[in-house]
Write a structure and sequence with these properties.
The protein has 325 residues and is mainly α. Among the domains are: 3-87; 95-142, no CATH class. It is 76% helix and 2% strand. Strands 1-2 form a two-stranded antiparallel sheet. Residues 210-325 are annotated as: Disordered.
Length: 325
């Protein structure tokens, strides 16, 4: 459809307003106007059809994909907003763990670059003294690579300390076992010493008791011996008295016998004196009666007897009596 399509309508309108148009021309204009009207209607119909088709195609090709994209965006925005809210919530709740690194760990990592100047002199340093979650903070933010390196160093050091601890624990257990063994031996020795002391005291008590018993027995024996000695002394005194009486009687008898012998000798001398008158009597011829008696006993083969022999015989008799007693 072009501008010529609307010329019939324009001419008809202008002639209608002027009123000087002939009927044939008017009829022709009306006919042309009707034809143009059909053209316009057809064009309008085609346009509507194209518009509808284009609208459907646009809806199918563009709006559907747009709506799907818009739905995805809406869903993503919702999830993003939800995650953002959770992030804010977690940011308010999440903090660095209360983990501590050994000072030796920080000293071994890059020559102590992360070792804080304000760290205390203790052997452990908290993670909050090394890293910070605050954006405006001076400390660096946590780095997974750095944290992993520090964790490996800390793990190695702790394993070494664990091994040392296990070794020392084994040594301690061995020492404890030895101490228990020595404690048992010490207890046994103490018990033995206590028993030995008790046994020693018992032995001393028994010895003391035996000594007292022996002392009493010795005293009784001494008393009995004293009594026996007294009895023996009394018997010996009695025997001595009897022996003394016997000796006196023997001496008296011996004196009488000697006197008798002297008398007999004098008689013999008197009887033989005329035959030997020519000889003088020397001192050697003068003999003691007792010597003569002894000589006679010797000539007869008997030893001379005296008072001491009688006393000795009495003593021997007393000894025999004592032995028999």
């Amino acid at each position: 459809m072009t501008t010529s399509t609307f010329q019939s309508a324009e001419q008809l309108l202008s002639h209608h307003l002027s009123g000087n148009l002939e009927p044939s021309e008017l009829q022709l204009l009306k006919k042309q106007f009707v034809l143009d009207s059909f053209k316009v209607n057809r064009f309008h119909k085609n346009f509507k059809s194209w518009e509808n088709t284009s609208t459907d195609e646009f809806v199918q090709n563009e709006i559907t994909s747009y709506n799907s994209k818009l739905g995805e965006l809406s869903r993503i925005n919702y999830e993003t907003e939800h995650l953002h809210r959770e992030y804010k919530k977690f940011c308010q709740q999440i903090d660095l763990p209360s983990f501590q690194f050994a000072r030796e760990t920080l000293e071994q990592y890059e020559d102590g670059r992360l070792l804080p100047d304000s760290a205390s002199g203790g052997s452990a340093i908290a993670l909050s003294e090394i890293f910070s979650l605050n954006v405006d903070g001076i400390l660096p933010k946590p780095d997974i690579v750095t944290f992993r390196a520090l964790l490996n160093i800390e793990f190695r050091l702790r394993i070494q300390r664990k091994i040392k601890y296990e070794i020392l624990l084994i040594i301690k257990q061995q020492l404890t076992a030895k101490n228990k063994k020595w404690a048992t031996r010490d207890s046994t020795l103490n018990e033995f010493m206590r028993k030995l002391e008790n046994v020693t005291e018992e032995v001393d008590r028994i010895r003391k008791s035996e000594k007292e018993d022996l002392k009493e027995y010795d005293e009784e024996e001494e008393e009995e011996e004293d009594e026996d000695e007294d009895m023996e002394q009394e018997e010996q005194d009695r025997d001595d008295e009897e022996a003394g009486d016997d000796n006196i009687e023997g001496e008296e008898r011996a004196g009488e016998e000697e006197e008798e012998e002297e008398e007999e000798e004098e008689e013999e001398d008197a009887s033989v004196e005329p035959e030997h008158s020519e000889f003088s009597v020397g001192p050697e011829d003068v003999r003691d009666p007792e010597d003569g008696e002894a000589q006679e006993h010797i000539e007869e083969g008997n030893p001379p007897s005296s008072g001491t022999d009688d006393l000795q015989g009495a003593d021997e008799d007393d000894d025999i009596m004592n032995i028999d007693g």
